[in-house]
Amino acid sequence: MTAAVRPVGIDLQESEENRALVAAIRADNPEVSVRHLPGLVKLSAPGRIVINRESVEAQLGREWETGEFQLAIVTYTGNFAEWDDDQIVVAWQH
User: Fold this and answer.
1) Could you tell me the pTM of the whole model?
2) How many Cβ atoms from other residues are within 10 Å of residue 40's Cβ?
3) Using an 8 Å Cβ cutoff, are 67 and 28 in contact?
4) Which interval of the chain is the signal sequence (predicted)?
5) Domains contained in the chain, CATH given
6) Of all helices (H) and strands (E), which one includes residue 53?
7) Mean pLDDT, each 10-residue run in order, the chain (94 residues)
């Protein structure tokens, strides 16, 4: 019997620019579920969500710094297990 994987989540403000961010997250995390609410996009996935700078840049069509993520995020569930110039990882650290 395997233990259930604890889900992580990210809530983002709904905006034109953040739609590209959501598209990049979906492309890199096929297991992510996306729920749209008025003014908010809720993403959740089992275990971890990875945000790759290169994927976001491809969706936006411009350079993107991972620090810009702070302008998009409303709340999150999990921990920022990694955050550098190329990648952000939301996961539970045990």
Assistant:
1) 0.91
2) 14
3) no
4) none
5) 7-91 (3.90.56.10)
6) helix 53-60
7) 80 95 98 97 97 98 97 97 97 84
